[in-house]
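Chapter summary example: a protein plus 4'-deoxy-4'-aminopyridoxal-5'-phosphate.
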Amino acid sequence: MLDRLQAQAPDALLALIKMHAADARPDTIDLGVGVYRTNEGATPVFRAIKAAEQRLVDEQDSKSYLGPEGDTGFVTALMPYIFGRDATMGGRIEGMQTPGGTGAVRLAVALSKAAGVTRIHMGTPSWPNHVQILSDVGVEPVLFSHATAEGGADLDAVLGAIRNAAPTDAVMLHGCCHNPTGVDYTDEQWDAIAGALAKTGVLPILDIAYHGLGKGLDEDVAGVRKVLAVVPEALIAYSCDKNFGLYRDRVGAFYMMAEQPDQLGAITSNANALARANWSMPPDHGGAAVRTVLRDESLTQQWLDELDEMRSRMRRVRARLAAADNEAPGLNLAVLGEQNGLFAMLPLSKDQIVKLREDHGIYMAGSGRINVAGLHEGNTPKFIAALADVTKD
Ligand code: PMP
């Protein structure tokens, strides 16, 4: 049977990592893989997480099984940061732990399908795994354009998708720090989106993978909260892998908002059954570390400070790139200063991307997506000069 399988295209970003590792030039720049980096180019373990992990080593007395819902203390501790003071919206929200944000997105799609959703509208470009998950679960993706050529969000496209959606459609939106464009909806745009969702009753699936890496913890979920305030139901996928630096520990959460509190039992029982059939239960360690941080005032403060440091570093890099707008005219670097998070898309041709790699040792995805966190004070001038070089004709 197995020789029937056709080889799949290798993951382009993983291929890029290999290429970069094989490049012996001393001053290469890796803007490919989507992890945060410090000014020194490192992706360190958060100090707050290290301290929490030490506590777990000292105090954890069992690694016996949890249920498919994982560490409920972790799930609950996150909720005020996402949903605000009334963290359950009057008892209408319940959540569970998942293997990363990926597990949460998968569960959101699978649960919506179990509820009768057949198509999910989503902006393009998007995190490539969104379409892969939809196809794997068996829900049809319907694409609308996410960003305009000017570098803002395409409000007409998302509103059109919502207004024309069938009753069995859902719409998937990035909560903040859009991957790969960095283009988020403005407050006014979120108002319009929330209004359209409330009017049509289309189920929103909100994916929050970079909370706190854009403008601030409250600012980054202001749009999501606007939606949740007016719609009857919603599904929310959340990742702690970036904002707690836990990538390989696979830490995520999936929240379900029901119209009435008494509907939550049936909804969560379906999510539990799906989780059980997929991964049985999520890995515990990272979620337990996040819970330990969030239940301790001083560790929470340390985490908030570390997150602040990351966010302000990325804002500084963005400001530096925006200020270089006239050095590479045509790339509209100015708009990078207004966009959010780890990523931005540069309108570079395939040839220009190859030239950046071959002539300058600068590695980025073939789409023109850059990881802003791969830049720092030391290498940003080189990057800007290289952009000027490849765009000069
Ligand atoms: N959603 C989006 C938009 C993402 O960019 C990512 C990660 N790159 C995820 C979900 C999943 O994150 P995780 O690594 O926690 O699975």
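Key point: The longest helix spans residues 297-323.
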